[in-house]
Design goal:
Blueprint (H helix, E strand, L loop, with lengths): L14 E4 L2 H11 L5 E5 L5 H9 L2 E6 L2 H10 L4 E4 L5 H5 L7 E4 L7 H14 L5 E5 L1 H4 L2
Parallel strand pairs: 1-6, 2-3, 2-5, 3-4, 5-6
Length: 142
């Protein structure tokens, strides 16, 4: 019988998907404001994180690469960076931040399934998030 079984809340957090770095950065002034606490996952050497810092109250950039972390930290001393993999949600929770926007750029060509699962985990872990912006070529092409 229709309607039986598990019901789903369809009022989830909006996800904006872009396919390239320019579109990803163009989202910042449009969607981020001075009340936002932003997290950038896969910040590489911090260029987009710096753009976020111009618009947000606070921003944190994380990348799993030790090299990229050191470059970002040296280049943008006024921004908080951490060497953390995007999948390590427990480490991000230990930062004690109440993120409101999450920008995600962890290899834009990765498979859609694991990326969608990761976004769902972030939605559960960070209840104050009101928007995800994801750079993912494969997801954009669906």
């Amino acid at each position: 019988m229709p309607g039986r079984g598990q019901r789903h809340e369809l009022g989830g957090v909006p996800v904006i998907v872009v396919e390239n770095v320019q579109d990803y950065r163009d989202c910042v002034p449009y969607y981020v404001n001075k009340d936002d606490v932003c997290l950038e996952l896969g910040c590489a050497q911090g260029c987009t994180t710096a753009v976020l810092a111009e618009h947000a109250k606070e921003v944190v950039g994380v990348d799993k690469s030790a090299f990229n972390f050191k470059v970002a930290e040296g280049r943008y001393k006024h921004i908080e960076f951490h060497e953390i993999a995007a999948e390590d949600i427990s480490a991000l929770l230990r930062l004690g931040k109440r993120f409101t926007k999450v920008f995600l750029d962890i290899s834009g060509s990765q498979p859609v399934g694991p990326l969608a699962a990761l976004i769902e985990k972030y939605e559960r872990a960070f209840p104050d998030v009101t928007l995800f912006v994801v750079k993912a070529y494969r997801l954009k092409k669906l």
